[in-house]
Every structure is written in C-alpha cells, then in structure tokens.
C-alpha cells in the first residue's frame, strides 16, 4: 500500500516551508510547518478555507494578546498575578464571543485562543510585537504554501 497524493503534497509543502523559513527568512519554521500540515486538506478549496480561517484566528488572538501585553507592560499588573489569570479568562471569553458574532468557523476560533494564550502565557521572553509578527507571517506563508502545493496534480507526478 503506497502513500496517496496528499501525503506527498504535505511532505513537499513541509520541505518548501522549512527551506524558506530557515534559509531565506532565518526563522525556526515551527509555525509555518504547523500551518502547512494543518492546512493541507483533501482539495485546494478546503485548504484555502481552512487556512483563511486559521489566519483570521491568528490575527484575532495576536491582536488581543498584543494589546493585553502592552497594557501589562505599562501597568502594575504582574504576569504571574491572579489578575492576569482573570484577564486571560476574560479575553478567552471575548475571543469566543466575537468569533461567534462574526460566524468564524471553529478552527479560526480555537486558533485565536491558542495564539492569545501563547502570547500571554509562554512567548519565551521574546518582545510581544516580534512574537506576534513572526507568528502571523509564518502562519500566512504556511497556508499559502499548502494551498499552492495542494493545487498541483500530484497523481500525475507520482505515476
């Protein structure tokens, strides 16, 4: 039993993403390859739709995370305080509510929360703007790569 075209497409897109991120952009490639793998769907249109919602969720979580961390930076709120726990819970509520209001699909909604929490809880002491920018750019590029590679007819190439 041989792998199908989608497996070859995914591996090709991951290779492109890693080469581009590491050797052209000087980035780790983590977010780009995750976006590639998650965006590679059964057809290009599904890849595009999934990817679009993933990027919108990333932007939503990134923007809110950035605003909250700028507030924290310029206030007496400590990142480890109970107030920060309450802020995280309240912002998760806002992301979920806003996503429902604008009828954002589930993958965009969950991505908004994941990106928000990655900014407010772990961002590895990287400056907030840098982290958000890299996260959004790598996600966008990964989605574009997955969508383009998914539009190639690999069945003809692997025969």
Automatic annotation (TrEMBL):
Which parts of the chain span the membrane according to its record? 12-34, 54-72, 81-99, 132-152
Q: Which Pfam families match?
A: FUSC_2
Q: Which residues form the Integral membrane bound transporter domain?
A: 27-149
Keyword Heme in record: no
Q: What name does this protein carry?
A: Uncharacterized membrane protein YgaE (UPF0421/DUF939 family)
Subcellular localization, per the record? Answer: Membrane
Q: How does it sit in the membrane?
A: Multi-pass membrane protein
- Which controlled-vocabulary keywords does the entry list? Membrane, Transmembrane, Transmembrane helix
Q: Say yes or no: keyword GTP-binding present.
A: no
What the entry lists under InterPro entries is as follows: Memb_transporter_dom (IPR049453)
Q: Principal place where this protein is found?
A: membrane
């Amino acid at each position: 039993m041989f792998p199908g075209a989608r497996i070859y497409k995914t591996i090709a897109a991951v290779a492109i993403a890693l080469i581009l991120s590491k050797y052209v952009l000087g980035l780790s490639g983590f977010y780009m390859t995750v976006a590639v793998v998650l965006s590679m769907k059964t057809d290009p249109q599904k890849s595009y739709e999934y990817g679009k919602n993933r990027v919108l969720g990333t932007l939503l979580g990134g923007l809110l995370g950035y605003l909250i961390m700028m507030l924290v930076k310029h206030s007496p709120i400590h990142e480890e305080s109970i107030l920060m726990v309450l802020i995280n819970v309240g912002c998760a509520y806002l992301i979920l509510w806003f996503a429902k209001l604008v009828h954002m699909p589930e993958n965009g909604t969950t991505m908004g929360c994941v990106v928000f929490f990655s900014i407010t809880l772990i961002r590895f002491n990287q400056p907030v703007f840098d982290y958000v920018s890299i996260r959004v750019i790598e996600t966008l590029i990964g989605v574009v790569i997955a969508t383009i590679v998914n539009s190639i007819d690999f069945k003809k190439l692997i025969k």
